[in-house]
Amino acid sequence: MLGFIGRRLATGLLLAFSVVTGMFFFLMLTGSDPARGALGLYATEEQVAVKREQLGLDRPLVEQYLSWLGGVVRGDLGVSSAQNTDVSDLIVTRLPVTVSLALGAVLVAAVLGVVLGLLAATRPGTFDRVLQVFMVFGFSLPNFWVAIILALVFAVQLGWFPATGYVHLNDSPGGWIWSITLPIVALSIGSIAAIAQQLRNSVITVNSQDYVRTLRSRGLSQREILLTHVLRNAAPPALTMLSLQFIAAMSGAAIIERVFGLQGIGAVAINASGNSDIPVIMGVLLFTVLVVVLVNLAVDILYAALNPKVRNA
Amino acid sequence: MQLTRTLTAAFAVVALALAGCSGGGQANEAGSSQLVLGNNGDLLTWDPAEMKEGAVIHYAEAVYDPLLRKTSESKIEGNLATSYEYNADLTELTLKLRDGVTFSDGAAFDADVVKVNLEARKKGAGSASEGARAIERVEVVDKATVRLHLSEPSPGLLAALATYTGYMASPKALSAGTIASNPVGSGPYTYDAGASEKGVKYTFKARDGYWNREAFPFENVVIRPYEEFTARYNALATGQIQFMYGTPDMVPKAKTDGLTVKTVPGEWQGIILQDRAGKASAALGDVRVRQAINHALDRKAILETHYGGFGQVSTQTFNPSSEAWVPELNARYPYDPAKARELLASAGYGSGFKIKVSYSEGFMSPLVPIVTQYLGDVGITVEQVPVNGFANGGLETLKGQPAFMLSFSTNIPAWTDVLNKLTPTSLWNNFKYTDETVTRLLKEIPAAQGDKQAALYKELNTHLVEQAWFAPIVTQENVYLFKSDIDVTMQQAQLMPSLRFFAPAK
Questions:
Q1: Measured distance CA(B51)–CA(B125) in Å, rounded
Q2: 0.90 cut: is pTM over it?
Q3: CA of B479: how far to CAs of A68, B12, B163, B200, in Å?
């Protein structure tokens, strides 16, 4: 098992390295000008040239890349070119918002998705059809639109939740739940539908297999068969869907954060993009890629735990 | 069934927990002694020399006091400098300074401090450095008098000294190099870092002993940045903030929600026909073609449909309250496609021509197809060149195009518009075009004052409209929305009204 984890981790890190390397050169070669972005339209060409030198942009591209990579290895993500702030500090400060949002959305999606998926699979007929309609509906709604509607109805009209802002968990646990509920609902609706749909189909497929019929004939209860045998075999595709939803939640959070005025990683990335703040963009990218790698690794480990044959793959 | 019961119970618990949370009411920071402003964006630096113009002014005004200040009509009056006087040829400006002013770190304000500040502003890269460009040397006459020696007369200097160029920062903070992260000024409030969170909210507390306390009646000011209009509006509607800069489409809902709506003439939107010598587009080099473009646009229809009536049709690029404005000029180019075709034919483009028009993607995107269609109707085929953000190399793309569409500020004094768009080194005159009349007037205007200067500005504006350097469409109305517990006096030609124009409602 350890060898399996090691191999998967190495592959993941190689992937992360390739992505950030490619992105670094892509950003540098697309005409972005962090010096102009930092100084604004009023700066003279001479001032922009001085800033370029300060930021090290006058050095060969490979040298700039190696310098950035060296910093990353030492745990130093550099300094924002637009606001003179340490990139690591910026990410760490904003991390709780995005993590609360993405983890909360995935947790809600996992719980509700599994419950709804199981209910749909085990209650054929009207109940299943109604749920299917809701699932298709939920999956097709853009989450920014859902966010706007939720804010309008539950914050502006009804006043049940704050329209904007984030309360830190350690400042007020109740306030934290209160501030994050609508964003989580907006972000999770599509994921709930996706996971429920995936699990429903898998359970129905597994349920119709011979070994399940055999188990039934041996007198095992439907509940025991479902939870012990069917779910174990139906879970992997839903697990894959869950990991994909987490990754989608990380990117979807950027839009949801804007609608609810939350200052998370997404807001940082969007602002950095507007200022061509390449150190911040790269920092956010590196963080996101590492999260994706770790989530995939966790899913692989769970797969392996469920199915030992995977470990030799 | 047991699963269903468990689920129902779980939902009930969550619902009760949330109901309990919301029972405490909304976090409404607004109160009679506190002003909470929603801002368009975050602050990148506290250094006045590096600040970019726009909504940032509220952050700056909370902590920094300017040498001069603007009235609600954007006329200039004394502030930290109690009086100002030019010499006869307008190359020296003498400022008499207020006595007894201190910075929040205890440093005293005097002529030496003004010198240090203005020299720091000149070195910066923000709009303050643009405003200070004409200052060649700062002479300390005595502790309470400073004289600015100018390289040439600069009609925009007084207005610059009333904002970014004129903000006075503590000499200690400037010499320590900490001003970008820790603002220390002589302004009405001090920055409370402990009660602030970067990117989320910035809190300011009233300063004891501030010389002009009655002009700033709030004990605390909180500024909350919201990039997204929807979020900002929701924050206002639910009482999380008291004031915001809005958009015309928000007005009907704002009125329904009981918010106060005020407007003030703001930016002009339209086309800069910058290739007036016909280098990249030979057709644009002919004044008849530029006039045809102006005749081809149905400004009234665009104003009503695209802008919802929030603005006025305009052929001019100056502020309606500025000395350059000539009301009659707005009748110069009525919508007349037949006349446009006639002008094009007389210029040799009877069968039309193609032209590249760049524009800022996003807020200009809806207007571009409208303009494209109107120009297409008279035979001009627009090739759209979207530009995604100036900072991302977009400025370079825009520079190379014969024409472009954007939203441009209009200012008082009109000289700021001259510097932005009309000189050979202007940011928005990338083909560096000029002509004899403009060259002459740009020399004569700075050397004149009063009515004589106003007449020259009007002559310049008339010439620009006649020569169709631009094809403006409307001068927009800027829209401001606020709660009924505050009063805000609108300010001409400034994106955000100054902090001293905010007061608790009577």
A1: 8
A2: no
A3: 44, 44, 22, 24
Give the HSE-up count for residue B54: Cα atoms under 13 Å, Cβ half-sphere.
16
- Residue owning tokens 């500005």: B457
pLDDT by residue, tens only, chain B of 506 residues: 343 344 334 434 343 343 333 333 333 444 459 999 999 888 989 999 998 877 899 999 999 999 999 999 999 999 999 999 999 999 999 999 999 999 999 999 999 999 999 999 999 888 888 889 899 999 999 999 999 999 999 999 999 999 999 999 999 999 999 999 999 999 999 999 999 998 899 999 999 889 999 999 999 999 999 988 999 999 999 999 999 999 888 999 999 999 999 999 999 999 999 999 999 999 999 999 999 999 999 999 999 999 989 999 999 999 999 999 999 999 999 999 999 999 999 999 999 999 999 988 877 889 999 999 999 999 999 999 888 765 555 666 677 789 999 888 899 999 999 998 999 988 889 899 999 999 999 999 999 999 999 999 999 999 999 999 999 999 999 999 999 999 999 999 899 999 999 999 98
| 8 A C-beta contact, residue B189 and residue B207 | yes
Task: From chain A, pick out residues whose CB is under 8 angstroms from the CB of B164.
Answer: none
> Which residues are bridge partners to B359 per DSSP?
B386, B405
SS3 B365: coil
Nearest CB to A156 within list B50, B234, B390: B234
Chain A, nearest residue to B228 by Cα: A258
Is the backbone peptide bond immediately before B413 cis, with ω within 30 degrees of 0? yes
ipTM above 0.90, yes or no: no
What's B108's DSSP letter? Answer: B
Q: What is the dihedral of CA B493, B495, B499, B500, to 10 degrees?
A: 10
- Cβ contacts of B389 on chain A, cutoff 8 Å: 273-274, 276
Pick from A89, A164, A224, A271 the residue to mutate for testing the B interface (most B CBs within 10 Å).
A164
Residues of chain B positioned with their CB less than 8 A from the CB of A36: 390-391, 395
Phi then psi for residue B155, to 5 deg, are -60, -20
How is residue B70 written in tokens?
Answer: 């603007």
Element (H, E) at A27: helix A2-29
Which residue among B234, B389, B395 sits closest to A164, beta carbon to beta carbon? B234
**Nearest alpha-carbon partner for B391 in A179, A274, A279:** A274
Helix (H, G, I), strand (E, B) or coil at B323: coil
Closest CA–CA distance from residue A265 to any residue of chain B (Å): 12
Residue B481, SS3 per DSSP: strand
Partner residues linked to B145 by β-bridges: B96, B142
User: In this complex, which of A83, A152, A177 lies closest to B44 when CB atoms are compared?
Assistant: A83
Q: What is the largest CA-CA distance in chain B?
A: 94
Q: Classify B448 in phi/psi space as left (phi over 0), alpha (psi -120 to 50) or beta.
A: beta
CB-CB neighbors (< 8 A) of A256 in chain B:
none
B230, B242, B249, B416: best to mutate for the A interface, most A CBs within 10 A: B230
Candidates B16, B18, B181, B200: best to mutate against A (most CBs of A within 10 A) is B200
Alpha-helical segments (H) within B306-392: 337-346, 367-377
Residues 6+ apart with CB under 8 A from A235: A199, A202, A306
Q: What are the Cα distances from residue B203, in Å, to A53, B163, B195, B224?
A: 35, 21, 6, 9
Going by their DSSP bridges, the two strands B135-142 and B260-272 should be labelled as unpaired
Select the residue of A47, A148, A165 nearest B240 (Cβ to Cβ). A165
* Contact across the interface for B427 and A156, Cβ inside 8 Å: no
CB-CB under 8 Å, A31 with B125 = no
**Structure-token match 């977009």, residue found:** B394
